Amino acid sequence: MSASPGILLRVPNDTAALPGPCQLCGGDRGTRAAHAWVCADCAWRYGDVPDADLPLPRIDVVYYLRFDRRVKIGTSRRPRQRLASIRHDELLAFERGDRTLEQRRHREFATLREGGEWFIFTAELEEHVARIRSAGDPWHLYARWLSAALRA
Ligand SMILES: [Zn+2]
Question: Which of 22, 112, 113, 127 is the most buried (most CB within 10 A)?
Answer without folding.
Answer: 22
